[in-house]
Amino acid sequence: MNRSPYITDAPTVSTIMFKVLLALVPGIAAYVWIYGGGILVSLTLATLTALTAEAVLLKIRQRPVKPYLMDMSAVVTAWLLALALPPLAPWWLVIVGTFFAIVIAKQLYGGLGYNPFNPAMVGYAVLLISFPLIMTKWPAPLLLAEHPLSFMDQLNFIFAQALPTDIKVDAITSATPLDYLKTQLMLKHEVASITQAPIFGVLGAKGGELVTGAYLLGGLYLLQQRIISWHLPTVFLAALAAISFAFYAIDPSHFANPLFHLMSGASMLCAFFIITDPVSGPTTPKGKIYFAAGVGVLTYLIRVYGGYPDGVAFAVLLMNMCVPLIDALTQPRVFGHQ
Amino acid sequence: MSDIINFASNLLRNTLFNKDTVGKDTVDKAANNNVLKDIFKFNGGVHPPEHKAESTTHAISKLATPEKLILPLRQHVGHMPKIKVQVGDYVLKGQMLAEPEGSVSAAIHAPTSGTITEISEQVIPHPSGLPDLCITLAPDNKDQWTTLQPVDWRNTDKKALVDRLRASGIVGLGGATFPTHIKLRTNGKSNVHTLVINAAECEPYITCDDMLMRERAAEIFKGIEIVQHLLGAEKCIVGIEDNKPIASEIMTKAGADFSAVQVKIVPTLYPSGDARRLIHLVLGIEIPNDKRSTDVGIQVFNVATVLAIYRYFEFGEPSISRIVTMTGNVTVPRNFEVLFGTPLHNLVAAAGGAKTGTTHFIMGGPMMGFDLPNDLVPITKAANCIIAAAPDLFAAPPPAMPCIRCARCADACPVNLQPQELYWFAKSDNFEKARDYNLFDCIECGCCTYVCPSDIPLVQYYRYAKSEIIAIDKAKEAADLARERNDFRLARIEREKLERAQKHAERAQAGKAEMKSAEVKAAEVKTTEMKATEDKAAEIKPAVDAEVAIAETIKTEEAPAITDKQAAIAAAIARAKAQKLAAANATDSTVEKAAALTNEAEAKIPATKTPEVEAAELKAKQDKQALIAAAIERAKAQKLAALAAGATPKNVENVSATAQAEINATDAIREKANLAVEAQALQTKATD
To answer: Which one, of A74, A78, A148, A152, lies nearest residue A111 by Cα?
Structure first.
């Protein structure tokens, strides 16, 4: 029996997923610091929902439960979704989104390795379409809030939508800078004056840009660990920067500068954690370049011209659809072939 | 565009990742850095832990002659050689036991002197684990050489040298075991200008070539000289991986006197020892996938093979032993010079025995080797390395997880394939797609499996898909051939049918014409006679008139007479039938019956016969019967003669039973028709 090779040297799927989770830790830490501990509740809820849904579905599909739960892929999906949701999202929102991501987008397509769409982004898109109001209201960073919520207050809000008596919902939430910029531009304000608003930070959203920076840090760790290839994040960020620069160069008063786009919304999370999902992404080096460039351009166009505050989720899902085509058209030249 | 991307990718990779962290026992490369230029890297490749240091602490030692030698006849790629000895024969060391048969075949020689005790099927070291024909030799421990015939290769015709090499038993000792004389044969088409000596030895654990270079560099260079001479190659490049600093230093020194030979140090990256990868590394040439390296003027030889060639020409020694690395879970891993046919357990014992925990033995390296069925199998020409396997060396792979399309396999593939796609196609039996994605370019090096996070046995899937595709192709080829043969057969039958019909028609026409002319003649004669004996013939005049009328009708109304013709033919057939029946019974008494039947048939002819004519016919009956009997006798005799001669229709040998039946039937009809025509003619005569 020829069963060579006898040796392997590869991180297992669980190792890869574990490292992805590890790379998210700086981002989460920054998140807690900026927005409070509420996010930890969302993360826990999402993780529990994901694992439960995964286990039940595996059981129903008569697949071995333990090895598939141990691969940690469900946890990665859960964390990415939780981090994409507003920090004080009500508990049921987290559960519904995670459930949808795991059950519909992942298991019903065949589980790990078979889902054509990024499960976290499917969950996010479903929530955004179904509950647009909740999905677009982000709490102000703690340092900006007139009445910073304590962890207990946040818990109360997540589970009971209850706030301390003297605080109104409007007082703790606001639009995201991307959203704000869009609505203000529609009101014929100029970018320079809009960005004077307190929610804007040095480069992106006040506070939010720190979280984004922490994601970048985690992403660099993944690159260094060779968990992800350089193609996707580099090209995505380059494409986003290039298109935003083009618009900015034409009319700086109506289009935000490239750095703002790179450091706002889910740009960094997308660059290093979302489009790098291998299952729903392309496999060829050239394909990765086209895919990432496509996501970058679509993200910008949806942000600027679309009806949603951020374009990452839809851009990723749209490009997921193109993956089979991209792969087929970008087959590399085989050694010895013309 | 892709060049820029690749360049950027390499740049980024090299700066971001410290590539040298891979491989635990990587030697100090600084010393070799100056020689690492002019190297053209191929994409992909892996660097597993080398494990080469363990087996290089001892010099090569000769393994003692064992109590018996088992020599498989198939130790090479190609045809099985023809056995030249019998059980009980006493043979001398180096004596040929089996000679090559066909062009791609290699001889087997006695590794030592002794007696042939057995020629039987025994388990051989092969991935299939199946037994194959082996010659068993019981050594007499005298180790007596046969008369060896060294050759003065410098002053001998090249063709003669290559022909002699055919009897050397030398095959590619790198593991491919392709008969060497084939590779040295000049076919006039390709002009080899560069000889590449493969000394990369890229698989982990294996050190036989390393030790050979350390100890026998001078002989290797003499071998290179011979091969270069035979190929007419002006240039020679020896490719050695940079994890063999001692060997490369010795080789570089030994090669200093050979201006045409260049020793190139290539980076340690599996599978650099693959011929096409090595050519790319040292020359920067990518051999087109559908061509051989000789098509672009390059030939590759393993370092141990050139040494064997040298020993054959210089001393006349055929291929009877090789260097084998015995390593892994044994007490003293080291290299031995082992006689072919030595049972594996002798080798294991010489290495201090297998340590506890040894589960089985692997032949070859850990990347491309295979499990041996037991330790009784003989060492063959392909056995470059034997590894005693233990769970702590080679852990059983965990159950495979689904492919997550991470494309690490694609990054590692030295052929630039997309292993994840091939896996998908192989798994779903989508063989056409697998072929489209160049499955057959896969060299089964195992890099993809080595890096797979899901522990999918990818190479096995490719081996499966390849064998399935080959089987399908073979079946398809066979089906195509069968269809073609059937189409041809049907066309032939159709053609023969037409030919027969044409002949038949021609004969019938000829018969008719003959009959016609005879009748006309008869009528004319009768008319003349009538004129001469007017009074006497007065009573038969109407009859004659009728006859003439018939003849004239036939003569003048040929076209509308078709129905008559048909009727005549039908009658003829009926007559023939009757005659045949008679012939079958073949007794004189039945002849009359047949005649009666003939008359009956005759009567059916819608002719305008008058009673007078009938009377005349009756008169002639006696003569007619005699004639018919004679004709029947003749036909019988002909038939018998034909049967005796075994005469069969043309092209009948290969036709099927149904076709044969058809041919027989048509033959019968043809015969019937012949008989009918003959009978008709006779009848006409008889009527006169």
So the answer is: A74
